[in-house]
Amino acid sequence: MIEKDQKAPVKLNLKNYQPVKPKLTKSVNVKETTLGSEYTYTLKVSNDQNTGIWHDVVVKDALDSANIQHVANTTTLAGQAVADSQAWQGEQLALNVGDLKPGETKTIQFKVHVIDVPKDKIINNVASAAGQDGAGNEVTPPDASVKVPVDYKTGELVSTKSVSDQAGNNINGHTVKVGDIIHFDIKVANKVTDSIVTDILVKDTLVKGFSYQAGSLTVDGQAASDSNFNGQNLAINIGDLKGNQEKTVGFDVKITAEADGSMKNVATSTGKTPGTDVPTTSTTPNTDNEANPEPTLTKEASVKDVELGGTYTYTLTLKNDDHAGIWHNAILKDSYQSKFH
Fold first, then answer.
1. Residues 147 and 212 in one domain
2. Is position 297 within any domain?
3. One domain, residues 133 and 259
4. Do residue 189 and residue 257 come from a single domain?
5. Does 183 lie in the same domain as 125?
6. Which has fewest Cβ within 10 Å: 38, 176, 313, 335?
7. What is the extent of the structural domain holding 142?
8. What is the pLDDT along the chain (341 residues), one digit of tens a residue?
9. How far apart are CA 146 and CA 13, in angstroms?
10. How far apart are CA 165 and CA 183, in angstroms?
């Protein structure tokens, strides 16, 4: 302290109190990404020219941990590897980059892995930095953030259809009869990992000889409304399938008297996937289920005995069994000796 009228020389310890002008930026190496992919964040922290030293700078970046995770052992500072134990606390980056001289820039890079897709399909996280000027005052630049659009990968549907009896036994290749009740399962799967197919519509048109049994329609074992059937036509929306998920539509049909030999019906499924519609896939049971005709013919006379000159009546009865398929274009023939008129 200098006293009034002091004439003796005084030694002053003058500190550099030049203001610090820091800056923080954040960028990413992709325009958009997909579930399961990796991409790289770059953080640049700098101190402007003609300023004081920015001391003890710590850079932080709290990741959106519900949707991304840092990739182990990919963090670098000025191109040099940094141990995860030094840089990360869970999914929050907290790295001391030291002092920044005027005009100096330091760069941090790390990779992240996309583990989920948020509802708004945008991944956004904010980085910050803090340090001190020459007087020990905290100095922070504006936070830096970058938004990355994200979506699922393009999905692909695979449909399979099976037929079984009421006991659950597979009856592909077996013969069925009129009156039998059989069960169809249409299994729809999305086989592409980290993808999604939305608005999946399953359709099936029952052929003549199949009669849908009211109350039997299910999706993954849960009852579905009969209103999804319109006559012989099924059209049911089963929602979405993420990668490696599947759903099964099941229902019963009864074999009717209209059943005719080879009976096939084809189920289809289609939906939407990021960037496009999913091509329609179709599925048919691997073998035919046949209801064959079972005809019988009987012939009777109206008398047991007849005398010369007498008359009597023949009755021919042609029948197809109640549980058989239709017998088409039946022709009845009967020949008798010419001496009988």
1. no
2. no
3. no
4. yes
5. no
6. 335
7. 22-151
8. 556 666 666 554 545 467 899 999 999 999 999 999 999 999 999 999 989 999 999 999 999 999 999 999 999 999 999 999 999 999 999 999 999 999 999 999 999 999 999 999 999 999 999 999 988 999 999 999 999 999 999 999 999 988 999 888 988 767 778 889 999 999 999 999 999 999 999 999 998 889 999 999 999 999 999 999 999 999 999 999 999 999 999 999 998 888 766 667 778 889 888 877 776 665 555 334 455 566 776 767 677 776 776 776 767 677 776 656 555 566 666 666 655 55
9. 44
10. 6
113 and 56 share one domain? yes
Residue 137 within a domain: yes
Q: Kindly report whether the global pTM for this prediction surpasses the value 0.85.
A: no
CA–CA separation, 220 vs 197, rounded Å?
Answer: 17
β-strands 122-132, 33-34 pairing = unpaired
141 and 259 assigned to the same domain? no
Is-contact 108 95, C-beta < 8 A?
A: yes
